[in-house]
Protein 1
Amino acid sequence: MESLKIRPQVQEIIDEFLNEQKPILNGVSPAASQLVDFAREFLVGGKRLRAAFCYWGYKAAGGDSEKEILHAASALEFLQGCALVHDDVMDASDTRRGKPAIHKRFENLHNDQSFAGSKELFGVGGAVLLGDLMLSWADQMLLNSGFEFQALKRGKDLYDLMRTELMAGQYLDLYNQAKRGGDVAESFNVIRFKSAKYSIERPLQLGGKLATDDENLNKVLSDFGLPLGEAFQLRDDLLGVFGDPEITGKPAGDDLREGKRTVLIELAFENANPAESKLLEDLFGKADLTQHEVDNLREVLQATGAQNRVEELIEQLFQRSNEALSESNVTTEAKNALAELAIAATSRRL
Amino acid sequence: MESLKIRPQVQEIIDEFLNEQKPILNGVSPAASQLVDFAREFLVGGKRLRAAFCYWGYKAAGGDSEKEILHAASALEFLQGCALVHDDVMDASDTRRGKPAIHKRFENLHNDQSFAGSKELFGVGGAVLLGDLMLSWADQMLLNSGFEFQALKRGKDLYDLMRTELMAGQYLDLYNQAKRGGDVAESFNVIRFKSAKYSIERPLQLGGKLATDDENLNKVLSDFGLPLGEAFQLRDDLLGVFGDPEITGKPAGDDLREGKRTVLIELAFENANPAESKLLEDLFGKADLTQHEVDNLREVLQATGAQNRVEELIEQLFQRSNEALSESNVTTEAKNALAELAIAATSRRL
């Protein structure tokens, strides 16, 4: 896919960076260099969606410093690494992409070495620190991307806003889940900040800012990126409930066990008849759901029309995003790549 | 104290920064703006030791951009905020400076609101995110301090190294504790990276780098700062065992219950006779130590000569640090302030 052609270069940049960090960690202690190895494993083979949006946002703005934008875009993969590792700690999720989550990796290390004390606490500690390192390495890589100061300053301001929105959005997610959900509007707010802005709109704009101070371009990228980001997260929520575990890398029904208050779920609560409401109340968020109970919940999500409604929303948001792109005057190359990315981000399988 | 005269300005800069962040978080959700309030509470009234060392490192190098250095120095308080909040999660420490730790604050919020799900997990989640925010805000503040690009670039490179060393040092601390300690040399490595460099040497050098590219000054600040930092942490370890809870803000004996493998403890293990060894093996790291058992452990730390040896080490390191300062040609004003800070950092009460 042309739009994801940067994947091998992003991988190379991440590897080189980690190679440079390794002796520093090793200098503290060979034990600490384990952190680099875990980071490397964790960062292998991602979709590089955020990096790609950043890259094409830059291209859309007419930027042509290839080496620099590849480094800046790769920085987002470290930020995403932090978000995922810390997210798994906060959700106590034991798997990620079909493999043990990082805190589980540290727990296993604790087990294998017959260490003293609580292995759970050691697992959390290792994962918190690895996430902190990746969060730190992200801005380090961005600031060392080689752009001149004015471009970096514009980019870093946007990046700072994105980070704050991300953490606030994640907190809102925890909060809404704890208060047993809110309404459809609130659940939209979560996906806007935790996901849509962070995954698509802001990476595009970061690329744009690194190329130009044109505020018009910044707006175009938002008009295209924000609805697309919302559609992307709605698709992700559908996959979290109905997706094939082989493709999602998560056990079927995990989002239902976790009690994630998605737009899909809020719509079901809003439109449920008394029998459906009771079933939702009883089963949604139950940690030990059986496969049969997962199926029952899925049926309610269909019967209430929530699933169809989310599919409709995805379609509408996708169209709105597409129109913004068509009407814009970004370069043809970027337009084609962004249109391709838009399909990939909202299709049923990515 | 002249050397800590910047404390009110640091407080003001932190407050202003948080005032600017509040509407951003509020825009995500009023619930999320709680994060700013917790950060504000947490960051009130610290000793500002790292900020002071950064400020005086800058002055030692002849820097005279007051507003800029105060902002850069204040950034370190956010980094320290992250380190403490995440540290308390990793150690499952419930108090900090005599008040509930941040994860406990979030647990209490969960309780007060009769939220659903695990309050412990909500507490950990809130604290991880607040730490991530403070870690992000630290480099944001540093990069917006107003220095010109070359100075910022030099400073940020040093800052990046410091962050990586800090996280690696903290991991080594967890690791050594889990493997039931190592030896005196290893425990020195932990205090070097987790504390001495991070608390004193690197903040001094950050200030220096923001003023000058003179490598000689950078070395002077290390020759003064590293032994001083080690002495500082050794004092802290003594206070953790023998200190007055009124002053340390931690329950007496908490470090002993936690099983912190400090230089003090490693020295005791190394020099214990069979009876003392048995007592150490039996009681050290026991989560429910009684006051009587704490007293027994304290006696062993005295009888083995470990306490005296640590006092001697503090004295030697302090002298070495002092000599490096005396022999240097930094400005008299800075020399006086640094000498004052050195005493404060290693005296029995700070």
Protein 2
Amino acid sequence: MTLEPNVETFLGCTAGYDEADIVLFGAPFDSTTSFRPGTRFGPAAVRRDSQGLETYSPYQDADLDEISVFDSGDLELSFGSPEPALRDIERRAAGIIGDGKFPLMVGGEHLVTLGAVRAALKTWPDLHIVQFDAHTDLRDEYLGAGLSHACVMRRCHDLVGDGRIHQFCIRSGTREEFSFAVEHTDLHRYDFAGMQEMIQFLWALDSPVYLTVDLDCLDPSVLPGTGTPEAGGVTFPQLLEAVIRACSLQVVAADVTELAPENDPSGVSTLTACKVVRELMLALGQS
Amino acid sequence: MTLEPNVETFLGCTAGYDEADIVLFGAPFDSTTSFRPGTRFGPAAVRRDSQGLETYSPYQDADLDEISVFDSGDLELSFGSPEPALRDIERRAAGIIGDGKFPLMVGGEHLVTLGAVRAALKTWPDLHIVQFDAHTDLRDEYLGAGLSHACVMRRCHDLVGDGRIHQFCIRSGTREEFSFAVEHTDLHRYDFAGMQEMIQFLWALDSPVYLTVDLDCLDPSVLPGTGTPEAGGVTFPQLLEAVIRACSLQVVAADVTELAPENDPSGVSTLTACKVVRELMLALGQS
Amino acid sequence: MTLEPNVETFLGCTAGYDEADIVLFGAPFDSTTSFRPGTRFGPAAVRRDSQGLETYSPYQDADLDEISVFDSGDLELSFGSPEPALRDIERRAAGIIGDGKFPLMVGGEHLVTLGAVRAALKTWPDLHIVQFDAHTDLRDEYLGAGLSHACVMRRCHDLVGDGRIHQFCIRSGTREEFSFAVEHTDLHRYDFAGMQEMIQFLWALDSPVYLTVDLDCLDPSVLPGTGTPEAGGVTFPQLLEAVIRACSLQVVAADVTELAPENDPSGVSTLTACKVVRELMLALGQS
Amino acid sequence: MTLEPNVETFLGCTAGYDEADIVLFGAPFDSTTSFRPGTRFGPAAVRRDSQGLETYSPYQDADLDEISVFDSGDLELSFGSPEPALRDIERRAAGIIGDGKFPLMVGGEHLVTLGAVRAALKTWPDLHIVQFDAHTDLRDEYLGAGLSHACVMRRCHDLVGDGRIHQFCIRSGTREEFSFAVEHTDLHRYDFAGMQEMIQFLWALDSPVYLTVDLDCLDPSVLPGTGTPEAGGVTFPQLLEAVIRACSLQVVAADVTELAPENDPSGVSTLTACKVVRELMLALGQS
Amino acid sequence: MTLEPNVETFLGCTAGYDEADIVLFGAPFDSTTSFRPGTRFGPAAVRRDSQGLETYSPYQDADLDEISVFDSGDLELSFGSPEPALRDIERRAAGIIGDGKFPLMVGGEHLVTLGAVRAALKTWPDLHIVQFDAHTDLRDEYLGAGLSHACVMRRCHDLVGDGRIHQFCIRSGTREEFSFAVEHTDLHRYDFAGMQEMIQFLWALDSPVYLTVDLDCLDPSVLPGTGTPEAGGVTFPQLLEAVIRACSLQVVAADVTELAPENDPSGVSTLTACKVVRELMLALGQS
Amino acid sequence: MTLEPNVETFLGCTAGYDEADIVLFGAPFDSTTSFRPGTRFGPAAVRRDSQGLETYSPYQDADLDEISVFDSGDLELSFGSPEPALRDIERRAAGIIGDGKFPLMVGGEHLVTLGAVRAALKTWPDLHIVQFDAHTDLRDEYLGAGLSHACVMRRCHDLVGDGRIHQFCIRSGTREEFSFAVEHTDLHRYDFAGMQEMIQFLWALDSPVYLTVDLDCLDPSVLPGTGTPEAGGVTFPQLLEAVIRACSLQVVAADVTELAPENDPSGVSTLTACKVVRELMLALGQS
């Protein structure tokens, strides 16, 4: 007889690379996390526990069997300096984009978004970014570093400029960050109020969109397993609806970040993150 | 002097068997659980932590002191093959019913419901089943087995036939299960919408009802301690109201299943399960 | 060179005692806790994890940098008999009040409130008490003791008399306690319904107010880390709004009690308690 | 049919009170614990998890089926002041002794020993105490209290006087406590060295003996689930041998204290405590 | 570009099937576990955390790079009835043996050994079994079932007969099991005393050997993460030496069972199990 | 009245900076940790839980009250690039040395040692390093980085050269690292065998010594709370004796690293680390 090697993928991501429309990859990096590390364990946990879900979504009446996703596993990122890690992420995302496929990254801390945004900007210089997040992430530097999870949207702003970052669910930041947002970004507090207007605006522009879901946009009761939980977030059905609506835009790349699975010993946070990824893939597959 | 043996019961269940109207028993079985075992510890945890509750419910202005419940402890079920366990459960439930009392079972995984439904059907062949659950549990088989927690409602359907299983809060299943439900059961998604119509329908029929509460109908934020938590569930007040309203029907037997206490190290899941059991007993006692 | 000693304070509480308007202190006492001890660890956990928050609140557009708070650390309370602990608390609160400052106590079990109320009553004999809590805490005695966390509001009633304790979010107690409340206190069930009327009533009286926040008023999904979690509580935004509105009254002293940090291994309960303290300080600073 | 109430006992303790030689009872008290509470949960955990053991001991070639033990459950002790709790313990132990039976108490913190020693001294005024413990427990007072787990052996010394407390495994205390021991007790550091001499001495005296096993005599690697773990303790086989040898003396009462089950989420501490209790009962049954 | 699928293997097991000398596979089964389930998670945990080890062993001065191991992943075993699971295991082991390779199984509960022993007996009818275990596992039935982790060695005895099961480290069982062993097996209590004699005996016979390592032979301080921890076990260096010495025999198949990773939140149990597997593979590779 | 700020120190470290002989400081850095982060929480945990210990050591018959130690709190180190963190550490250690005091650093991951060694070498260019550790830490680079916890002793070797690093308890590393050690360091496997010879050798040289205690030299049963636990380590009494003996040398600076408190929910690891620090300070104070 012969035996096959032990391939492990996110639930239902059984396509080969060549046939896939979406390519999932993990970015297990958390070196700049200041408060509680552990998002490095996010991608592996999402892959493993996704087996506890169904491939079918009653919300969208769609099944992962009907779309083509390849799971390319996790990048091997060096701990320590963030710049080499960002370059590895950018290279992976750029390769996927270059092959005409959709890169879907699972973090890791939110800083990993910067690598994928850099890659997307090369192909789509008029990119807009839609961010679901509890935090503004608009600091210019944090604890002396400009490459930090607390600065990632500021670094994205350096690249895309004013009015092209659309922030929702925001409920934490310094006074300076909120002031910066008034001038430079499209910030919406606490929940998804204002999303309809943004969608109409981006439809009108026919703009390519990078969607970044920092899972701490969810209320900590729903997802305690994250690095910096912030009371007062949205519910899972609210996030689900927002993700589906965002996918009505021309989304060209996306990520789901900041799951820290070991912070939630009940395992519910990981399962909820899995469901967000499942619904995001299904919504992308239908758009 | 003389000392009494150490009798342990669910809070306020101090009646003797003969005088009791309701007989509580535990069914600590989880052998078919596929994802995360541990519901075997549910009944003992409910019994123990119920001591942290009051006997009085402000919701119903009623007190456990005013009703007669006997707690007969947990069945000793063999791990391994489910059929002998189901027979033990059926025998216990049938005995209680035969003595004109109300059997209230605490699980264990949801498969235990099948044993008690078999017993109830012998006395009430026109039984309807009201199910609060995140999952359809309508698979015909699961991992090669037809007796599985994922198949329990399908097995019940084998017994009661079309239109007699009323499912609420459902948000997970295969496409096939949802299709089966369209044909054969009265399935309501996500919450308790449609409950008023069902109650009027069953009132009109004057039908006996088996009420099965799979605690994973609750949102995982409320009850993370269960085998297969599913984001997007109902709140505790919603479940409480639904339980009280269901008890306005002619409920003849009931269960509360799928608490996996060790999955929630905060202990909140167990306390919430205890409160569901208390409110259910009080609602039954008043109907 | 020379090195400074290691001063640890709640986030942003950097004022010296003389310049401070608010003086924070911890009361790490849990000796009468019957169900699950551990609130003794509350004050230290709040101090430590507050460093994970921002000093700025987008809810109130205010920053801890703009108010003057001194953190005097935790009292050293003896475990065992509660009366000496209550005397130590009363002495600390009285000293702070005597210096014209605002005492803000972090518990510890709810019994600690009695010490601070005694101190406040000496200066403000016409004091009203506003209580956010899941439990009535109106037992006359509990397990043979009159000084218990389950009796604290009854003991306060002994001091202030009828109609001067305003209770919100109440959802647990004996039938006797609820009956007592009908006669003697202003009890509101489940949430903050009736708060507007109470505020207008106290405005009309121009009465000094002691505000006591038992964190178990929050739903256990939001704050599982407490001694006696009770399903069916309020959300964080609801509590936040209530705290801010209560601070429109003439609040002269306050406490936040019943955080049991180790009951919630995710750490979310502690962070949420920190945010309640932050928002309370900011609301007090603006009133 | 009729159903029996749910009697729960320590493994194999199936005798009725009248026929029993040994009477087990729990003393779930931890109010004076200064560092980490939780020994209140010890007796219930020991009772519950003992079901995971065999009744047979290969070490002693003896079986619990061959001895007669009655488990009278846990005392209901009020939290707060220790003196009433000690009186309840003394009364229970005295009743058992008065009926010619052997009282075996499971703690709870070590202070509970004082209640049982008081009872034993009334019948056996020439009692010696054999103590296995990491701590001297010889403080005259602790945090202002004389009735504290840190003072229990000093209080026993108040009752029995010099030379009648035999301490083993001691590795923690103040300089004053070690000095006190030089004058007043028979203290052995770190392990059981010197035990043979003590046994011969007590054989010669034909003295009745109270045996108190503070489980923190074990190394924390073996039993992390205790209030104040101290590195450098003995192994389980060493304790087992010491317990068996101590039971060659005329032991008239005994206790096993300081299990804090929730401090060890692996559950190993509780299982090890169960085995200590099993072996102690078997050794007593054979002597 | 193209991307490879995400192959996950035990550390250093990078050979293809055809070139491999040893074939690792997981048997994630725990349905008959009576006390604490969770060994189903053992194989995946071992595979994952093995990445935290070095491939080089200073104990044996050998490296996994120097041997050829293929990791074929975990079997998909149905939960519920054990017989189908045993057949799947037997088939996998027989296939590997049929290809002239060495089957190394990672459990799962100890019952899985029966499947692999059945396979080995077909090729080597004169097989001896060397068992390192805390428990005799010699019950004829357990809770009404003959196929149980508590009966596995009795079932093996049914197959191999008297004098061919060599048991070490045994410290738990019923009186009947120990009596059975006196007649029928070669049982050694507590540790590896007598191993040298057994090795010489089996060398003389030149007998093929099945080596089964139930990890609960280790002391619970070393490996708390197992289903039924038993105080009084061996140390890691003792087990390591015994494994290496056993591999001087003609070992033809082996397993490592009873890791329950979630019972040890420190993760040490899993890492220790990984090291046992590494050392076992290296010892097999050198023999 | 006036109130003092909340100074928190390691147990008994009540001296002012000027009068102190030893200056303790924390280095909460873990950015290069590859397997399990969390040593950043080590210094704060050691400071906090040290309050659970006595100031008196029966092992050395010495008390912290008799020596002068100042606790300067934790450095604020930026997460991300290690070089700035190392510079901050070097500056702190150099300042303490410059004032004629003894720097005692608590980590943090082992890389922090490099900063303190750099500082010590400026004053004592003939420094020897005595290392207690499970790992060689002699890689030239790890995951592409030369500044990593896995490389720290290689970087020290770059500075001090051959024969001046004395390694004990080593049981993990690559073949290359063990080969490097044969040529360049004084490596002792598994335990403290060879320590007496090393001490005599360094006495003869009258060499200044830097003592670095990586707590993972302890067996994981004793200290599971570390980043990379390795089975087969030394016991606490063995480490205690080795620390005391090492302090008979001319030790000029020291550290205790690699406590990851959250990996051990029992808290025993932190308490054991506290005791190592206490005994080290007492041994230094007596030399």
Protein 3
Amino acid sequence: MTIIIKVTIWNEFLHEKTDERVKAIYPNGIHNELAAYLEQFDDIEVKATTLDSENFGITDELLDNTDVLIWWSHMEQDKVPDEIARKVADRVLLGMGFIVLHSAHYSKPFRLLMGTTCSLRWREGDFERVWCVNPGHPIAKDIPACFELPNEEMYGEHFDIPQPDSVVFAGWFRGGELFRSGCCWNRGAGKVFYFQPGHETNPVYKNPNVLTIIKNAVYWATPCNKRTTLVCHHFDETTEQRYVKGLTETY
Amino acid sequence: MTIIIKVTIWNEFLHEKTDERVKAIYPNGIHNELAAYLEQFDDIEVKATTLDSENFGITDELLDNTDVLIWWSHMEQDKVPDEIARKVADRVLLGMGFIVLHSAHYSKPFRLLMGTTCSLRWREGDFERVWCVNPGHPIAKDIPACFELPNEEMYGEHFDIPQPDSVVFAGWFRGGELFRSGCCWNRGAGKVFYFQPGHETNPVYKNPNVLTIIKNAVYWATPCNKRTTLVCHHFDETTEQRYVKGLTETY
Amino acid sequence: MTIIIKVTIWNEFLHEKTDERVKAIYPNGIHNELAAYLEQFDDIEVKATTLDSENFGITDELLDNTDVLIWWSHMEQDKVPDEIARKVADRVLLGMGFIVLHSAHYSKPFRLLMGTTCSLRWREGDFERVWCVNPGHPIAKDIPACFELPNEEMYGEHFDIPQPDSVVFAGWFRGGELFRSGCCWNRGAGKVFYFQPGHETNPVYKNPNVLTIIKNAVYWATPCNKRTTLVCHHFDETTEQRYVKGLTETY
Amino acid sequence: MTIIIKVTIWNEFLHEKTDERVKAIYPNGIHNELAAYLEQFDDIEVKATTLDSENFGITDELLDNTDVLIWWSHMEQDKVPDEIARKVADRVLLGMGFIVLHSAHYSKPFRLLMGTTCSLRWREGDFERVWCVNPGHPIAKDIPACFELPNEEMYGEHFDIPQPDSVVFAGWFRGGELFRSGCCWNRGAGKVFYFQPGHETNPVYKNPNVLTIIKNAVYWATPCNKRTTLVCHHFDETTEQRYVKGLTETY
């Protein structure tokens, strides 16, 4: 019996409508580009949603039916209301996977989950070589020791993130910078993967290695356990007493 | 030349005024108990402040003169305004050390920096044995393999925190639970140490091992570098071009 | 198309032949007990081997056909020759998964991979409660917040291991100790999971949670990428020059 | 009262005697170059020793008087006998600090402590820019966001090391590679810092940032606690029983 992984791709979907260069690359939006790729896999079911959809593209019903949420945003990060950002972050803490792409380092839900500014050094237009620094990690599966992105935005250190639980990829830029480009964290019962490539003016989401990494990340971020609450567990009895009574403990 | 470390102890200071049991243990408040201990060290300079002081005990001038901030709070965590919590968290990201005690796992600035709920399992009244799981860590200096706290509040797993950069201590409770009791994180240019012992109705801050741990944490959390900004660095020129011009890069 | 994971279970297989208590629990040996459980899964193919088999149970042909190696040993750890231990460790560095059970904390290949003594505090006979401290980890899938092992050997801190990449489980013992009971490391392109429960005189490998954890660990430890060499890569040309020529880089 | 840190610098001291280029840079050897720098600090006491000294430069008496051992080696790593390498590694596990420079990534004691091959990609002669990725770490104290080494040997990923407890520096090379250049691990009660810069044909150990980093690493690696044994602690009594008797536990 195949387990189906429910993936939702949330996209700001602004550049693709207003910038001819971006429209030429992703006429249906980055969300549909990624959706078309992920739909090829029998055990992945994809929905796509955008900032201009109902309730900013995030409804409870949608989240109830999402195992892994992929997020691309840039110019209108601030248009996502705080309560929507909180709702997304809470779902991650309860177990949902969260894949954060490129400029979404500055998205509200990612910053809530990181607790740092997520600021970085940047510059438009450079050549990037992505090196794998953790070949045994599931997100590195089938990825070579390095691969190149001839046109990418430079994101460089210091990247103000909490120390990742694993750094899987690091990016080298001709202009003289480097970056922790692929980073993993556990947060609550959920998993978060940040991946730097994906500037809208370059066809980065057509690169086979980039796509494989995103697909690997979907499998990696699929929930293992779901938590039942985000608040403290309090019992007057000790766990030893509860055990004698045959009571069991939940997350 | 001795470097002086400027420590500020912030205390909610409510239980000590309203609960006779607590008043009997800490007649001058937990803040003054800890201050009296830390003042013994020549290279530590201590200030103490409380929730009922000017601006909730947190002024810019105070923070300008704080290398390490120690925080105890419980019942009135929510009385600290969001903008004060943000200000404290930002100072940590810029380099300030932050030592978070006991029930302050639920304080606003700690939760902002962690990005998780910081929820846990709890029960009043148990016997705790604190084990060191990282004897080479500077916060473990001069601490035995384990030590006991005959009366302590039970805090147990699952503790909803990001994976610590180092777990230094773990607590064993007779009631059947365990806990990551002493945890370290880097956040921005600052360092954060959470330490679980310190329930107000027990004289835990008179225990010599507990005091040594707090003192060790002060030295460990002292800033190494201060960041100059919390926002992104952007330059049109590459770092290679800037280097040729003799320009230098800051955090 | 289902990918088949090739699992080899290596067992010292001595207690089961010489100690009536152990024989009564595992008449066919711990290896066959675990094999019978894992064989239920369609995508897992199991072989079992023992210290008294050809070449100490470890041949190149066997390792060529092993994705994940499970290892139980105790009294005769030293009978495994150094060159066999090295061969096993090297296979891990090339990508093989390695699941190390109970007293095999002192096995030669585990110690080679850890680089520390792997010493610990121990005492026969106690009650253990295993707590999950990382509910989002794939090895914790379907495991409750805690579960009990009424009879288990106590292993306690300080456990002299490198800081794990993830601690998934921690054990609480009635006698007053705690332990990092389920620990993960990446080593080279391979993954290592150490799991403490499994003393031979207790039917621990019949406990459903213990079995689920071992099965989860098999999936987790399955190789992602295999390295082609364990020695340094040296090229006179830069990676930039090699890229222009269309050369690709391997691990 | 100032605590004196006893530093021993062990150098292979071969290139400096046989290669005119190296002799011109370090006429008294790399060990004496580093010793002269470290001796400026009032609380650091320095000894230097070399492979061609008594017992390969490593005696018990010397180790008894060493808090932090700095190690440079390259061509004759294999001339260090296995038992000397084991002795050094064991001292680290007992608490000694260990700073491993450049080509000593392949030294026997470092490989013993890491448990991996420590292999890497390399090429003679490139321009390196060292970026700090953890500005709050004590080894980064007073180091700018990046600094340059116009002539350095390229060491690149994949570097086959265990995931560091902290990565403090990462190196960017013009030829297209990057590297985790400054890495920290706890091992037993000791601390290990690997630092990549320091090829013998370049005056890297005259660079003020490199020297500051080595000095910072000395302070960071100074022992906090010493372990009393490397073998398991076994007691028939529980820790609870031993506590009642007033017995204390050691590492």
